[in-house]
Write a structure and sequence with these properties.
The protein is built from 11 helices and 15 strands. The chain is an alpha/beta fold. The longest helix has 18 residues.
Length: 358
């Protein structure tokens, strides 16, 4: 069976070595030695001054919206994983959708201003499949209307834009360290803010609001990463170069062998150092997609319709029509991409896909 992704697992003895440290310390949570070390190593790897690791990738979105959303209207993209919209609604804010670019698949920054009202408090945009939004244009709009900017950068570990980490953009950026992601801690995530005061707010918000053991800065929630999660991250991090190189080889194979007379794929924004996190293909129509998907499934190959459906169509979003997003969502399929796909399996995927395009 070939699934759309497969978790990268480091040698178990290397994970066990990290876990043994937690056993020896008798300290499993509340920001122990392993969590602190992971944050330090990630700061070095990503060339960042601030990082706060969390227990999953959704809690940073919720905390950012709690701090910056003010229960207002949040301009956002309909083309993302459901967690993006769900976090907005969960935090008693209102999602206001803006359609996407047909090539970059990120929010169409030229349509943002028309969606701004006196209730708008923030923009929450997704760097889709690790492909940066037009962050420069969004920053200009945000400053003009005094809005806060949150980036769902769940797919963006290691991505650089204009020579610096994508996490440097926006008031708050978030990342997912879910087991299916490029870098993972089994389940986990992180959040980033350049402003020290805002980073401090993020910190106490993820720790029940604590200011020391007996005092509180304000409202908080439990977003702390455990030592067992950090152990996985410490075991995975040394393999990042291998992970990126092997994923690039798979993507290069797809790029060289798929029939792009009847397909297209993601256009990476200029000046981006991409991380090869996903490989989406966009069909001419949904019927073509379903035919290819059926042929692959019958051969035990399981790509994923990701993202589907367009989030403006889900029950609790009450979104307006978003024709580009709805069209792309009905025609996009992410192909298998992970460390360890053999050349034989890559060839099977490409052959079956090309044969069923007509």
């Amino acid at each position: 069976m070939i699934n759309v992704t497969k978790t990268f697992l480091p040698p178990i003895e290397e994970y066990n070595k990290q876990v043994q440290r937690a056993w020896d310390n008798e300290w499993l949570t509340n920001r122990g030695e392993l969590v602190l070390e992971l944050e330090e190593k990630l700061r070095g790897y990503l060339s960042l001054s601030n990082i706060l690791v969390t227990n999953n990738g959704t809690i940073p979105l919720k905390i950012a919206l709690k701090l910056l959303g003010n229960k207002g209207e949040i301009i956002t993209t309909p083309f993302s994983y459901v967690a993006t919209t769900a976090a907005i609604v969960w935090e008693h804010c209102t999602p206001v959708f803006v359609d996407i670019h047909s090539e970059y698949l990120t929010i169409d920054e030229t349509k943002i201003e028309a969606a701004i009202t006196n209730k708008t408090t923030a923009i929450l945009a997704t760097h889709v499949f690790g492909n940066p939004c037009n962050v420069i244009a969004i920053e200009v709009i945000a400053k003009k209307y005094n809005l806060r900017v949150i980036y769902d950068a769940a797919h963006c570990f290691g991505v650089q834009y204009n020579g610096k980490s994508i996490f440097e953009y926006g008031d708050v950026s978030t990342c997912s360290f879910h087991a299916t992601k490029l870098f993972h801690t089994g389940e986990g995530g992180a959040m980033f803010a350049k402003n020290p005061d805002l980073q401090h707010q993020l910190f106490y918000s993820h720790n029940f609001g604590h200011n020391g053991p007996l005092a509180f800065h304000g409202l908080g929630i439990n977003g702390k990463m455990s030592e067992l999660q950090a152990a996985m991250g410490l075991a995975v991090l040394p393999y990042m170069e291998i992970i990126v190189v092997e994923r690039k080889l798979v993507i290069d194979f797809y790029n060289e062998n798929l029939d792009f007379s009847k397909l297209k794929t993601l256009k990476i924004r200029e000046n981006t150092q991409w991380n090869y996190s996903y490989y989406p293909v966009i069909f001419e129509n949904e019927a073509q997609l379903l035919k290819v998907q059926k042929a692959l499934n019958e051969n035990q190959i399981f790509p994923r319709r990701y993202f589907y459906p367009s989030l403006n169509t889900i029950e609790y979003s009450n979104g307006m029509s978003m024709p580009v997003s709805e069209s792309i969502a009905s025609r996009i399929l992410c192909l298998p991409l992970y460390v360890g796909i053999s050349v034989v399996d890559r060839d099977r995927i490409v052959t079956l896909l090309n044969e069923n395009l007509c």
